[in-house]
Design brief:
With 126 residues, the chain is an alpha+beta fold. The protein has three helices and four strands, in the order αββααββ. The protein is 34% helix and 19% strand. The strands form two sheets. Strands 1-2 form a two-stranded antiparallel ribbon. A two-stranded antiparallel sheet has the order 3-4. Strand 3 and strand 4 form a beta hairpin.
Length: 126
């Protein structure tokens, strides 16, 4: 989706104090909990913006199989799970843009269209 950035995100490593006590069970992640409950899971793990071109960026998403199954039932298709999620994410972004545009249109003007009254019933639109 975003071609400008090729970097990968890495989760920060936590330094754990060494202990002679019995090892604790690792805390379950939100994804693990949702998966165990049979619920869909989607999360943004990171966002990167290209400092050379702030209009380019990337999101790193994480999901579970239930989320993919729900997308497929909703009609999303792709060769890989990442293709399916990318289609969904693009659709979400498209809806955000359209909602923003609709809000501007509801204000009875478009901030990108300038109208100047030339008189005699004529207008200049740029």
């Amino acid at each position: 989706m975003f071609e400008g950035i090729k970097k990968r995100f890495k989760k920060p490593t936590e330094s754990k104090p060494e202990s002679s006590a019995a090892p604790k069970k690792p805390k379950k992640s939100e994804k693990d909990i949702a998966t165990e409950k049979g619920e869909p899971y989607i999360s943004i793990l990171g966002i990167e913006v290209d400092p050379e071109n702030i209009h380019q960026g990337a999101f790193e998403l994480d999901w579970n199989d239930k989320f993919i199954a729900n997308l497929m039932r909703a009609g999303y298709q792709g060769k890989t799970d990442a293709d399916i999620v990318d289609q969904w994410f693009q659709n979400v972004c498209r809806h955000v843009v359209m909602e923003t545009y609709d809000q501007y249109a509801a204000m009875d003007h478009d901030p990108y269209v300038h109208v100047r009254d030339l008189g005699d019933g004529r207008k200049e639109v740029s």
